[in-house]
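Might I ask for a little of your time on a matter of protein folding? Here, with my thanks, is the record as I have it:
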Amino acid sequence: MPTNILMPALSPTMEKGNLARWLKKEGDKIKSGDIIAEIETDKATMEYEAVDEGTLAKIVVPEGTQDVAVNAVIAVLAGEGEDVKAAASGAKSAPTAKAATTPAPAKPTTPSVAASAPRAAKPPVQPVSAQPAGTNRIFSSPLARRLAKDANVDLNRIEGSGPHGRVIARDIDAAKSGKGLRAPGATPAAAPMTTSPSDAQVRALYEDGSYDFVPHDQMRKIIAQRLTLSKQTIPHFYLTLDCDIGKLMTAREEINAAAPVKDGKPAYKISVNDFVIKALALALQRVPDANVTWTDAGMLHHKHSDVGVAVAIPGGLITPVVRQAEAKSLSTISNEMKDYAARARTRHLKPQEYQGGSCAISNLGMYGIKDFAAVINPPHATILAVGAGEERAVVRNGALAVATIMTVTLSTDHRAVDGALGAEMLGAFKKLIENPVMMVV
């Protein structure tokens, strides 16, 4: 019987993709391993490789179609000896726009084509309200609960005056005199839900014609979803240090000046960011309890430092991962990052090159940013935000001096990395970045 060719899941977060181009046409013979189409995801353009053999009987989704749901039928393949016309006539028509936006089942029943990427992971469960509608749970401060117990006051009868109806100490004092009490048996009102304004409400704030509307592309949608999920589900906290990178700048100049020449060009050109990658990788090895990923069932302790590095690309950013960075030389890291950045900007990174990792770096120093705090990129437990190296006045031995200072901020997942542990890891990074000779011993 004919085989359905399905829209593949090219990353764990992918729910939809764009069918950029068909490389085969109806009636063409297909062999296993043939590249039949190009699929655009939020991060890259991927080639679609055939697994089965046969004749391309029907193209269901034309090239250029956007927001095609994962596992939607995009073409039909007639097997050897099958009637191509019959297979084509039995094919479903292209999905409507509404159907294309509906996530398909996580596992296809008749896979016929494979791309070099894992299947989509189950979408993350959205966090629920701390006080679901219809529950009788009373939110109160620890002090209020103690005062209520001492005064023998029923918390269920107190109208809270704190944020979202929270019962606080002053409400207990008022209740002692009979104020702010509900009738016996009355249930407290549910806390109001905080929701974002609708598109129509936002647009109503601006006059027609005063703005241009540009729909979000798939990359921007995914970035918004992931970062919203990160801030809603990961308890962030932040640690900041100033690092003296005077020795690093001198070492960088000497290393680049000594680089061998190949085909008229230096074999490498080390950047400050390359030193940062190496120092963070070694710091994670020195403080292995910080080289972790949180899961509800247990902690993943990573053996290697796989460092993701945020790269700005048109329309958003992507985080290619330098694998086992602790074991790589600065020149290897430098050349690897240049290759990643070039292919990232043309969206030709493979999913395994930007998925996973144990931590990440976001460097805005080249834009003159002094310091900032980055949002953790799940499943990482930490991300290091790097500011610009700049000359600042410092005190040395009781006298003013000028030093090149770089401010770094470590964002951590407090479930996985506590304050003292994060401080220890950031301190290890500071020692390495301020004494770059320690990175080669």
About this structure: Confidence is low (pLDDT under 50) at residues 94-136. The chain has three domains: 3-114, 137-187, 222-440. The first helix runs from residue 84 to 89. The longest strand covers residues 382-396.
